[in-house]
Structures are given as structure tokens and as C-alpha cells.
Amino acid sequence: MNFDFTAEAPKLMMLLYGVIAFAAVVGLLLLVLDVLPARKDRWIALGLLAPAGLLLVVGLIVPAVRTMVLAFMNADSSEFVGLENFRWIFTDKNSGMLPDFSGDTVQYGVLLSTLLWVLLVPTASTAVGLVYAVMVDRSRFESFAKSLVFMPMAISFVGAGIIWKFVYEYRQEGADQIGLLNQLIVWLGGTPQQWLLDGPWNTLYLIVVLVWIQAGFAMVVLSAAIKAIPADIVEAARIDGVTAWQMFWRVTIPSIRPALVVVLVTISIGTLKVFDIVRTMTGGQFGTSVVANEMYTYSFRADEKGKGAALAVLLFLFVIPIVIYQVRLMRRRRLEGAR
Amino acid sequence: MSTGTETIVAAPDAEVPPTVGGRVRKKLTSRTASAVSLVIALLWTVPTLGVLISSIRPEDEIKSNGWWNFFSHPQFTLENYEQVLFGSRSASGGLAGYFINSLVITIPSVLFPLAFCALAAYALAWTRFRGRDWVYIGIFALQIVPLQMALIPLLSFFNYGVSLGGVQLLPAWDLDGPAKFITVWFAHTCFALPLGIFLLHNFMAELPGDLVEAARVDGASHAKIFRSVILPLIVPALASFAIFQFLWVWNDLLVALIFAGGPKNAPLTVRLAELAGNRGNEWQRLTAAAFVSIIVPLTVFLSLQRYFVRGLLAGSVKG
Percent of chain A scored above 70 by pLDDT? Predict the structure, then answer.
């Protein structure tokens, strides 16, 4: 046991300072508000919004605008290079961004991999979440059963990465397997595989991990939507004598469509930004990297700020069509509701 | 006469009103349904169980055979945990220090956004000023800006300050040692604001307006209304946002990697990612380390799940 507890004391002091600073800031704000003339809403609002507004400007808005500028500059941000960084992303064969189908094994490249993530994770998580929500609805162990699937949401992406790396662990054929998946393969009479090394399938095995995390979110939201379907609709359908299958496709799905869209959109946006899983499980090697991982590597490891910023802007551009889709759908829904 | 009305009223209530899900489940042969949900439930828990069991098995056992053999040859040890928590850093130990870092990072990173979001949400819901809706829409829209858009300039803001045309407008922060935590708090606080304000605003705007009006007529100031009328009512919403933010910060890797700077201030996730990269075969340490990092959020989550779910639903289904 050679752990030095005294070395930790300054950090705990820092925590104490942080909490004291918090109390002081909140106390001061409320005090100032008390002193301000009560009838002037404008000043009160300004005071209340000031801390959040200032932090948003300094920490989010100005940096985001600066990133957009940096995306058109070179590696150390000393001169403008026009669209060079974007040309590099979309046309340079050595950037690793583009798919390569010429070799023995298919390389998806970063862009296509990211697209695969964004298409597969939301659909698969939503499908699993929906099926599970329908299956356990009204069953005896409903809340317990839901907790089981919901639990991975509390686990960090890094933790989940390690958990699944252990599932995929490989030992030579003939040796005792310690990874669950390879053991199952051996029991079924197959030969063990190096799941994470061999492209192009390894990307899929990484995607499984995020589906595992996100299905719980989909399940909870969809389950609440299912419970909110009015009983008389269900009753009417039953009197019409529909089968369970028809009930699912013609009553359940249309009734929960808004919730489905929200779940799909939320998970898509989250998926775009994921980099922890890739970084923990393969480090982005073996053709598994995604845009968010490259963004981190170029910005903070390779010191290529221009390319890093361009990749960040790309992530932002990918989000926009998803959001526009959602907004249009919401507006149509509101119009239909008004009619 | 009375019996007649009773039967009419009672008839529809005699059966429990079925939900769609319930009916689908009943009609699909319920055996298939049970089988499918059982398979899903197993897939969603067994991988975690494997890591938990491995973390308490001796090193030779973990490395030579699968964790499922634990059930036939149970061997129990806490040595892995002792190693990772208190062993020397070079031997992939020292997690206790990182655990403390995680706590030091997380607690203020939850408190500050909680306060700032509550105040801003109150202003947007209950004060009247021109352009209020536009400010709200602006903050709402900021939710779609990916974190990645802010990282490079924010880091240079901390490291080099702000200079315009060669003139230094703001100095570099120049923080060292434990003070480096401040930059992490700052970053987490900024990034939490759009979602936090959105969630709390949704909740506050639905409180009955009469409450606030009555207090105003009595001559109460906004500060007083906020403290004594609004605050007690929004405790559930604050709780769900706090849990949200707690899980997000505790589990975050990206912000910590960039802003915590070095092993002295790095949280568990950074260390864990490092171990997974460098010592990917030392499963006795990795499994124990993973569990050390999981246990806190899992406890928080399982004990406060109700609030968390409520927050999730408020954030996603409305809007």
C-alpha cells in the first residue's frame, strides 16, 4: 500500500473553495436582486440572465464562431487557406476519410463509417427499445425489467467500451477463451475471431456498444408514449377485430410517431458526437475511426488546428439536416393539431 | 333506479382498461414475448456481470479461463481492487487519487449550472422584457451546436488569453496544480447551460401564473418570489437536471482529456481509457478499475431513477 493520502488534501481544499465560491456567487446575485427596484423587470431579467448569458457567450458562442474561422486557416492558424481543409477531407486519398474498395479488405473510411454509425445506432436502439417496451408493458416485473435495460445509461462510454472489449476478447484457437462471444462460438463449434481487428465488420461490433447504451433511453421514452395512448382508440380497434400484428402497426406505431421521431433524432445527434467508444476499444485503428475521433486527434494530438476545426464544422453541418427535419415535422404536427 | 346507474357506470370499469402494449403482448403468444424480452434482458446485463465477477477473481484465473467458470470453481479475492485503488501509479494503480479528482470535478460542475440555469430560466419564464422570446429561442437553438465546435478556441482562451491585433485584451489563465480544476468546471458549466435552461424553463413555465401574480401584488421582489415561491416547487426538476448533469460530467471523457491537463487532475474516465490502451491485457486490473468508475453513477442512477426518467421525458417528449 503506497498511496499517499496527504497528496490529495490540496484537491479537496480546491473542492471546498469551489463550493464556497458557488455559495458566494449565488448569495451575491440574490442580494443584488433584492436591492434592485422591484418594479423594473428589465433590470431584474438582466441580472438573472447575466451569469448564464456571459458564460454562453464566452464558452460557446464566440468559440463556435472562431472555430468556423479556424476551419479556413492552416495548422497553426497563422494564415487563411480557403477551402483547403475541406478539400483535404473530401478528396485527399491519404486523409483516411474516403472509402477504399480497391484492397483485399474494404476500408469504409471515416466519413462512411460515421454515416454507418448515424444510420444504424438510432434505428437499432429504437427497434430494440420499442420491442422491449411493448413486450414488458403491463407485465408483472415491468419496472425491474426496464431497469435492467436502462442500466447501461449510467455507465460511461469508456466503461462500456471496456465491458464489451472483454466480451470480444480473443484467445488462440484451442486455448480456453476468456471472452464470452468467442466462447459461445467455440461451444457452437466455430473458430474464435479477432472481432475488433478485422475490417470491415469491426465497425459493426463497435456500433453494438452504443446501441447497448442507447436502447434504454429509447425504451423509457417509447414506453411512456405507449402508456399515453388513449384507451378508447385501443378499444375501438379491438371491436373492429384487428389482430395483434395490425394493432402494433396501425394503432401503436401511428400513435407514438412523435415520440419515435424525437428518439431517433436525439440518438442520431448523440451518435455523431461519440468518440469515447472508438478511442477506448480500438483507438481509431483498423479502419474504425469516426469524425469526432479524428477531430480530437487532429486538434489536440497532431496539432493540426485547421483540419481539426474543419472536422468540427463538418459535425455541426451534419446535425443541421437532422434538426431541420425535426422542426418541419413538429410544425406540420402543430398545423394538423390546429385544424 | 340507483342500481341502474350503478351498473352503467360500473360496466366499463369492470375490466382494467387495456393499453396497446398489453394487448399486443397478450395476443402474440406470450411465450414468444417472454423469450424475446428475456434474451434482450440477458444481453443487456450479462456483459456487465462478467466484468463484475472477473474483478473479484484472482489474476491467474481471469487470464486462463472464462469468468463463467466462477460458478463452478468460485475463488474470491479483493486484491485487484487493492491494487488498482492504492497501488503505485506505474503499476496501473492509484485510482483512489483519480476517484477524488472525479469528485472534485463533478460536484462544482453540477452546482454552478444548476444555479445559473435556474436563475436564467426564471427570468425567461416570469419576468417581462422586450426580446424575451428571442433570447429563449437563441438559447434553445444553441443545444444543437456540438461541443466540438467550442473546444479549440476555449482551450486557447484558457492557455493564451484573448489578444486582438497584437493587443492582449485578457491574460492567459495560467492555472497550476489543483487550480487547473477551475477550467474544467468552467467548460462543463458552459456546455450544460442550453439544455439546463431549456429543461427548467419548460418546468417553470407550467407553474400556475396566479402564484407569482399574487406574490407580486403583495409587493414581493423577484428575488423573494424566486426563493420562497418558485424554488420549493421546482425541486423535482432541479433534481432531475442535477442527476443528468452528474452522470454526464462523471462519465465525460472528452472535456476532461482536453481541459484537465495531466494525470494530477484527470478523472477516472481518462485513467480508464489510458489503461485500456496501454494495458489492454491486464484484465484483472481493467475489470476492477472499470467497476470502480461505474459504481458511483450506478448507485446514483438506481436510487434516483424516478427523477432521471422524469427529466428525460420532459426534455424529449415536449418541444
Answer: 96
